[in-house]
Amino acid sequence: MKIKLNNEISVEYPESFAEMTGAELKKSFGSAVRRSGAKNDAKQFFISVSWTDRVSLPTSLFVNEKSCLNKAAARCRRTLSEHRDDGHITREHPTGKVTGFEYSYTQDGTPYHGAAAAIKLCGRIYVVEYRTSSFDRMFCSMAFNMVITSLRPIRGDKR
Amino acid sequence: MKILVLDDHKSIVDDLIYELKEIMPDAECTGISEPAEALALIKDHSYHIAFLDIEMPELNGIEFAKKILAKDPRTNIIYITAHSGYAVECFKTYASAFLEKPIDRDELVDALGHLRFPVSNITDEMVMQEFSGNSMIGKRIVRLREESGMSRQDFIKAMGVSAQTVYRWENGERIPSMATYMKIMQVLGVDIDKML
Fold first, then answer.
1. What is the C-alpha separation between A80 and A148, in angstroms, rounded?
2. What percent of chain B has pLDDT over 70?
3. Across the interface, do B15 and A91 touch by the CB < 8 Å criterion?
4. How far is B109 from chain A (nearest CA, A)?
5. Is residue B3 within 8 Å of B51, Cβ to Cβ?
6. Residue A150 burial (C-beta neighbours within 10 Å; 0-12, 13-18, 19+)
7. Is the peptide bond between A58 and the residue preceding it cis, with omega within 30 degrees of 0?
8. Domain match, B90 and B48 both
């Protein structure tokens, strides 16, 4: 399922996933503004892509992949109960390595885990984040990697 | 068991191999994300199972499967793909399974448990040797003798035969007659059930 984000970048969610509504995005990730998401109900797996406005100098000195990840991490710590930081991660994208973090938390007595990774494309920072109660390691890792690597400029726009 | 994983996304190859090693620690897994490398590999190697992506630049997974099967028709082909539309075409290569990415662990385990050509560590040679009768009886004599705590020397003495005769029984080179077999039972103090 290929989705256009802000007419510049497209993302492809796995076929078995359904696109999330604004209400679902707000419930799962706290916001639906400049955010797209998809879910797999069978696995209780939710994944979203959020993005910033275009950043150029001097703003890009302060708004970059690291600052966006720090903001995402702070939001997780603030809003998720029994939140635990599980360390840094790296993922692959055709443009190069992408960094992020993993975390875990509890919701209504159920353990969840998640991860986020940030990448700069076409002057914007894109943060891919997932949350799930599934501990099928391969499924979660594969889904996360698939969405990250699917982020591509539309119509050959420059990076 | 030898397994090949081919996908142009290295992260998918890594994820799948990690999981396969969790499920089957003794399996020998080879992961390739360069199609050219895969073509060279299959010229010299055979695999019990090949996990193949379908849509890859430079190489179509279904065509690659045909090349593998031309060399070894008993290779289990398991397609892994993000697009379900290829299912019909895939099964024309008599695929063992078709897994949609991201791969569910339970579905992977199920696919491995229902291979088109089940894989076993037991070779045809081993089966023939085991069921030829000779080896089976000999091994049983050795096992029961050891279980009874009797040394080979004591066994030879008790049976009243040469060391060479006992050696031949134990190695399947000679089968004892029924009368001798009954004497062996007596000497080892075992019931007929255990000897049969």
1. 24
2. 89
3. no
4. 12
5. yes
6. buried
7. yes
8. yes
| Spatial distance between the Cα atoms of B70 and B64, rounded to a whole number of angstroms | 10
- Distance separating alpha carbons of residues B32 and B126, to the nearest angstrom: 33
Counted domains in chain B: 2
DSSP class of A52: -
Closest CA–CA distance from residue B8 to any residue of chain A (Å): 11
Domains of chain A, first to last: 2-156 (3.40.1000.10)
State how far the Cα of B67 lies from the Cα of B154, in Å rounded to an integer. Answer: 60
Is there a single domain that holds both residue B156 and residue B176? yes
Instruction: Tell whether B9 lies on the interface with A, counting CB pairs under 8 A.
Output: yes
Q: How far is CA A153 from the centre of its chain?
A: 17
The residue assigned the tokens 């000195």 is A61
Complex prediction ipTM: 0.83
For residue A83 the two structure tokens come to: 């939140």
Q: How far apart are CA B2 and CA A39, in angstroms?
A: 35
- Rounded to whole angstroms, the Cα distance separating B69 from B48 reads 11
Count CB-CB contacts under 10 A for residue B66.
Answer: 13
Nearest CA in chain A to B80: A142
Per the structure block, which two tokens stand in for B55? 């849509």
For A148, name the nearest residue in chain B, comparing CA atoms only: B11
| pLDDT tens string A35-73 | 999 999 999 999 999 998 887 776 666 778 888 888 888
